[in-house]
Amino acid sequence: MKFASILRDNSTSVGIVNSATGRIRPLAGVTDMVDLIARYADIEPSLASNTQEIALADIKLAAPIVMPRRNIFCVGKNYREHAREFSNSGFEAGAKKGAEIDEYPAIFSKGPNTVIGPDAPVQLHSTVTSSVDYEAELAVIIGKPGRNISQKDAYNHIFGYTIVNDVTARDRQKNHKQWFMGKTLDTFCPMGPWITTSDELDPENLDVKCWVNGELRQNANTRDLIFGIPSLIATISAGLTLVPGDIIATGTPAGVGIGFTPPKFLKSGDVVAIEISGIGRLENRFVA
Fold first, then answer.
1. Buried b (16+ CB within 10 A) or exposed e, 72-109
2. Which DSSP state fits 219?
3. Which site in 19, 51, 184, 282 is 20 to 30 Å from 59, CA atoms measured?
4. Residue 167 — φ and ψ, nearest 5°?
5. 8 Å CB contact between 209 and 218
């Protein structure tokens, strides 16, 4: 199934998406997406009783998880070619030639303030940065709580998957060394268009593509991840309890703006579109 958050009359609700027909069925008795995820085992038997459908064209989609309960877990340098382009770009503080691939996954976070939905404008924050970049990523949505989760059991803790654009201020990422300052500006995490449940996808074989103004920039497959999803969940949950609604962005492939000579940073009016097979398309315009 695909679940989306609907924005209507300054409030949000949750619905089941039929992407084939372009329609959505709002769900009664569900507070928000995290409520749905946390109570899914109890709610699932009643989903078929929600029969009213609305055309997707007649509603506005919010981010699937409008306001995450805590920071988004993110993974850096998790595709080999991107790790190399980042190391060679001059924007990675302390980068050492020949040491592009890390022994352990690089984990950082983005605050809930960064999250926006499909078609929402991304602010360029020109007073604080001059090097805004895009990063297309598959995001994991945790459904079952757990701590010290084994790789073998990791997939049992996943509710579903969505798309995020891990927007980055490269100058701030480099200057502050710890990546939080370059990653967590307001609107820097477009998310959507919805969550596809884990039973519908093979997360180890998904095409990840990103276009800027119609130009294909990123084109990879999740089979190329250095640290796979089970490894990431085991690493992050070691001594830290993951809870329903937690989000893990799994890293971006090569083709980001800093991978070009000279770098191709985003400008006002640029449109970034991301597609991941089995999920859908996330598109946002960048504005001054």
1. bbbbbbbbbebbebbbebebbeeeeeeebeeeebeebb
2. E
3. 184
4. -60, 140
5. yes
CA distance 273 to 92: 25
The Cβ of residue 111 has, within 10 Å, a number of other Cβ atoms equal to 17
CB 266 within 8 A of CB 286: yes
Of all residues in the chain, what percent carry a pLDDT higher than 70? 97
Residue 100, strand partner residues: none
Q: What is the pLDDT of residues 268-278, one digit of tens each?
A: 999 999 999 99
* DSSP, res 173: H
Q: How far apart are CA 143 and CA 269, in angstroms?
A: 36
Q: How far is CA 53 from CA 37, 183, 282, in A?
A: 21, 37, 22
Read off the tokens for 184. Answer: 């967590």
Contacts of 262 (CB under 8 A, 6+ apart): none
The CA distance from 240 to 176, in Å, is: 26
Angle at 281 between CA 20 and CA 247, to 5 degrees: 110
Q: For residue 262, say if its preceding peptide bond is cis, omega within 30 degrees of 0.
A: yes
Q: Under a CB-based contact definition with an 8 Å cutoff, are residues 12 and 26 in contact?
A: no
Please answer whether residues 43 and 34 qualify as being in contact, where contact means their C-beta atoms are separated by less than 8 angstroms: no
Which SS3 state, helix, strand or coil, does residue 198 take?
helix
Cis peptide before 145 (omega within 30 of 0): no
Q: Running DSSP on this structure, what letter comes out for residue 71?
A: P
Q: 244, 143 in Cβ contact below 8 A?
A: yes
